[in-house]
Amino acid sequence: MMKNSGVNITRHACLYETSPAYVTDQPRFLNSAVRGTTKLEPHELLKKLKEIEKDIGRTDGIRYGPRPIDLDILLYGKSHISTENLTVPHERIHERPFVLAPLVDLLGSSTDDNVEKSWHSLAKCTGGFFESWDKLGGESIIGTEGIKRVLPVGNRLLDWSERTLVMGVLNLTPDSFSDGGKFQEVEAAIAQTKLLISEGADIIDIGAQSTRPLARRLSADEELERLVPVLDAITGIPEMEGKLLSVDTFYAEVAAEAVKRGVHIVNDVSGGQIDPRILEVVAELGVPYVTMHMRGDPSTMQSEQNLLYGDVCKEVASELYKRVRQAELSGIPLWRIVLDPGIGFSKNSKHNLEVIMGLESIRTEIGKMSLGASHVPILLGPSRKRFLGEICNRVNPTERDAATMVVATAGILNGANIVRVHNVKYGVDTAKVSDALSKGRR
Question: Cα–Cα distance between 418 and 167 in angstroms, integer?
């Protein structure tokens, strides 16, 4: 609605669930912020925002009380505005964690951006909005009852910082490197889904297209032909109650059909590079989007050129952030984006190990460009990958589960929030112990 009113949104903050302020006897609130450009003058913009509030159903009520939406102008370029209807910068920015947290998300930690410099100069602290945020507690208060980052998925708000989530793999392909051909039939797929759920999977990731190196690419129609019968059967089983479904696809058409049939998350190994239409489709679908780092496509990703890195973590961070920017500009808000550094995609064994051990540095590098993007969930998918076989001399992928759990542990301790595994039973135990270790370390 803002876009239709003449606001071009260029950046999003994370989404925060917060305790009510001032009037405390009411439900919790959701807060975020967006950054954009507009030709509307400040008072024209305010008028448009009030019209949007009204269209969404806001009426006059208790001040600070429950309402469907409240839109405020926090900053407008370098402007100082003080009129009867509008004060910019917003006068209560500095006392409200639920405003400062998303506002800081819209900034980068580097000081190259002149617009951001001018914003910091409008803050009441010499250290800009970073100092204001630190005075309220900063990152240390995130995850408390007062304020939590959340991912809207299905009919819930997911706080991914509470514990590591386990994504179980269900391949409907005849040619996947680990378990190709095992679960193509509906009955076998249902049995495997029930097993993954019984072992504790939080998410079932269904893929009908192999993305192993040099795999033959299916058309969207071929992929749907494999996917739809299994998907329809799985969504009907009682065991799926409370669980999340993800579709592993890079096609817009497949993503749309899968979500229509009950899928909650779109997991795109290409980050929108193979079928760019998927970004706008996912934006319209309003579901979380996993964007992964990969150079080229599965047929070219392991080429000599695509394996050239100077600093692999810096380059993965930079290239992954480009995918985030493209997703945001296509209408997918940051609060629905999950990052995947792409273990085994356009990387050799050394690169994979450096990425797993360097997840924190990847976050830091992304944070230089967007603090919000550095806070989103990270999904790690090392399960049974070839590099583990090379290290352990295990030719058979199914014999790589122990090695998988070692790198999953390292990944979780370095900041991964979701691990994608074939062996969910081991994955759940690994996540629990890694989370305990992580809390003990803090």
Answer: 7
In degrees rounded to 5, what are phi and psi of residue 323?
-70, -40
Domain ranges of the chain: 2-151, 160-440
| Average pLDDT for 112-138 | 91
Evaluate whether 210 touches 193 at the Cβ level (below 8 Å): no
Domain 160-440 top-level CATH class:
alpha beta
The whole-angstrom distance between residue 136's C-alpha and the CA centroid of its chain comes to 26
Q: Which residues, 6 or more positions from 277, have their beta carbon under 8 angstroms from its beta carbon?
A: 252
Cis amide leading into 89 (omega within 30)? yes
* Catalytic positions: 385, 420
Residue pointed to by tokens 């779109």: 266
> Can you tell me which residue has the tokens 């122990």?
402
For the residues of 382-418, what is the DSSP string, one character each? -TT-HHHHHHHT--SGGGGHHHHHHHHHHHHHTT--E
Tokens of 168: 């179980």
| Neighbouring C-alpha atoms within 13 Å toward the C-beta of 244 | 24
* Pair of tokens at residue 433: 């112990």
Residue 407's alpha-carbon distances to 1, 38, 156, 382, in angstroms, are 44, 46, 30, 7
Q: What does the pLDDT look like over 287-323, one tens digit per residue?
A: 999 999 999 988 889 899 999 999 999 999 999 999 9
* Cβ–Cβ < 8 Å for 74, 89: yes
- In whole angstroms, what is the distance from residue 183 CA to residue 173 CA? 7
Which residues have C-beta within 8 Å of that of residue 129, sequence separation ≥ 6? 93, 100, 103, 104, 107, 119, 120, 123
Selecting from 3.90.1570.10, 3.40.50.10320, 3.40.190.10, 3.30.70.560, what CATH number does the domain 2-151 have? Answer: 3.30.70.560
Q: How far apart are CA 292 and CA 339, in angstroms?
A: 6
State how far the Cα of 377 lies from the Cα of 290, in Å rounded to an integer. Answer: 9
DSSP letter, residue 23: S
Predicted local distance difference test score (pLDDT) of residue 185: 84
Asked whether 244 and 154 are in contact (CB, 8 A), the reply is yes
Residue 355, amino acid: V
